[in-house]
Amino acid sequence: MKDIYIYPRNAFAFATLVLGFALILTACGSESTSTEPGQALVRVDGEEITVIQLNDELGRNRVQADQVEQARKQLLESMIDIQLMVAEAQREKLDRAPNVMRAIERAKKQIIAQSYMQTTLSRIDDPTEEEINQFYQEHPELFAQRKKYNLPFIRFSSEILNDEFKSVIDSAKSLSDVVQWLDKHQISYFSDEMIQTTTDMPPQVATRLQNTQIGEMFLVHENANATSILVSVKNIEQDPVTFEDIRSRITTHLLINKRRETAQDAIARLRAAADIEYLHDQEDTDSSIETDAQSPSTTPLIPQQKDKALDNILLQDESIERGISGLK
Fold first, then answer.
1. Domain ranges of the chain
2. Is the pTM here over 0.90, yes or no?
3. What does the alpha-carbon distance between residue 58 and residue 314 come to, in Å, rounded to a whole number?
4. Longest dimension (CA), the chain
5. Cβ neighbours of residue 169 under 8 Å, at least 6 residues apart?
6. Residues near 82 by Cβ (< 8 Å), separated by ≥ 6?
7. Please, what CATH class does the domain formed by 132-238 belong to?
């Protein structure tokens, strides 16, 4: 049985959130960003919170137009709370703590780097009509010959994937046989059913399903192998989609690819032009890492996550790529 691996996308997003909060602390603790009359919304012990700052927060949170008024009030109260915490932290000199200063420096670098990348990506042209049509014609399995799958599944901890359980899966005639074995051994699992087309699946899953027959089962490993999904193919239907119906999604997909390629090329160019000198072996670097319980929590990037980290910075919509990982 061939296994499929899907790696998480949110580890770097979490780290960015932590670093972003550290920058907010410094921004709120600095001098007011506006001295123009009428721009200040509230003063907290003499420190102003301005319209510009509030609008920035609304933009970052991507508030819908019909929710702006309610969100404006909630965000303003949240900004007041943050300012109070910042002021108290400064009184206790927590802003000068080494771990906080390191987090602030990381946040500054992250935001400056993102600014560079956003400027670079802003020069990308939208996909042409010819490029969009060519992609549609070159991928009939996703569009003109698209299929829809009815996929019952069970999710369980990967810890139970021992030789005995793998043997049960290999010999099972249906998903219910596996469920019965799990129930008999009182092993917890989650079961459900989904209906998806090849357009909505990760490429590796869509490829795996191309020659799959009704009744066949396969494993999908997710969350860096913390959990696994056993998927069964219950039904397959033809579900073609026209060019006009899918045009906008193809446009988004092509733009995402252009953004990714442009970003990777930009980084490669910068690396080629730079003088990068590694001063220690990797083992020496690993052994020198200190564990600080009070340090802001960030998730280190493992090799498989590096491209995903870039995606988290650059990509806004991955409608064609999302799939079984969306079961979470």
1. 9-109, 132-238
2. no
3. 20
4. 76
5. 1, 178, 217, 219, 230
6. 24, 25, 28
7. alpha beta
